[in-house]
């Protein structure tokens, strides 16, 4: 499928915003196969890449790839040391995994919107084959990541403070008065639940908007020469700006995870 007049603009946009799904599109048991393939595939690529570089690492002059990975590891490690105030050997590897994995999923937005869907259509022999290549533009993926972090928040809150301490945190803050327990519980519950929701929606919103803008710019290529030239200029400008967006969103997701887990380790 292309934006050269063979389909309407609405059909073109709808095609690129439709997932390759199993079952009824939008149903509860629908699996977004493209999101699963790209997210899991990029996760495996991340593990393989860092493991292979780690095994070949030398104490001498590092190669370019080893140098880049060492810079990333040192950056994440310093971020954890500055932000996390407890003691937990899991936090640094978790932060590294989140930052690199989310960045790699975000980076898929830098691939021209028609390339991989057209390859998928050729392989499937169906020009209507759907394929979305940015996992973090799928709310299911961002909520899955956020729920994983939320589970760790609950786990460490109970592990560090105990069940009674965790219950007291929900019922005796911010007002340490028994009569205010219902109010405290509502306020603290909303604050607790808002953490994974904010993580998921922030990442999804930014990447969905970025994906949509690339699709709208791609529509301009099928217009006259002047508009197509403007589309190329806009595409390059948005591409450069979007590099900052995808990096920043990976960093924010990582930092908020560290902050939330640091709060979970605070024993009052």
From TrEMBL:
It is found in: Cell membrane; Membrane. Keywords: ATP synthesis, Cell inner membrane, Cell membrane, CF(0), Hydrogen ion transport, Ion transport, Membrane, Transmembrane, Transmembrane helix, Transport. The chain crosses the membrane at residues 29-50, 90-108, 139-158, 212-232, 238-261. The keyword Zinc does not apply. It is a multi-pass membrane protein. Its main location: membrane. Belongs to the ATPase A chain family. This is ATP synthase subunit a. It comes from Shewanella fodinae. The gene is atpB.
């Amino acid at each position: 499928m292309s934006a050269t007049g063979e389909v309407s603009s609405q059909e073109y946009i709808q095609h690129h915003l439709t997932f390759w799904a199993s079952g009824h599109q939008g149903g509860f048991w629908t699996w977004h196969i493209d999101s699963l393939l790209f997210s899991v595939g990029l996760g495996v690529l991340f593990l393989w890449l860092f493991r292979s570089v780690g095994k070949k690492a030398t104490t001498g002059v590092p190669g370019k790839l080893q140098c880049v990975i060492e810079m990333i590891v040192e950056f994440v490690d310093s971020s954890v040391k500055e932000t996390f105030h407890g003691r937990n050997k899991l936090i640094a590897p978790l932060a590294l995994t989140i930052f690199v994995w989310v960045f790699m999923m975000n980076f898929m937005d830098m691939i021209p919107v028609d390339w991989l869907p057209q390859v998928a259509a050729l392989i499937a022999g169906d020009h209507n084959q759907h394929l979305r290549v940015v996992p973090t533009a799928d709310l299911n993926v961002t909520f899955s990541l956020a729920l994983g972090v939320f589970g760790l928040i609950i786990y460490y809150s109970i592990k560090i403070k105990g069940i009674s301490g965790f219950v007291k945190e929900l019922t005796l803050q911010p007002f340490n008065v028994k009569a205010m327990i219902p109010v405290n519980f509502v306020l603290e519950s909303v604050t607790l639940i808002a953490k994974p929701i904010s993580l998921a929606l922030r990442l999804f919103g930014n990447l969905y908007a970025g994906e949509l803008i690339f699709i709208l710019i791609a529509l301009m290529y099928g217009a006259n020469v002047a508009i197509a030239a403007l589309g190329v200029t806009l595409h390059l400008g948005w591409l450069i700006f979007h590099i900052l967006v995808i990096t920043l969103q990976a960093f924010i997701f990582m930092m908020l995870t560290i902050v939330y887990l640091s709060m979970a380790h605070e024993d009052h």
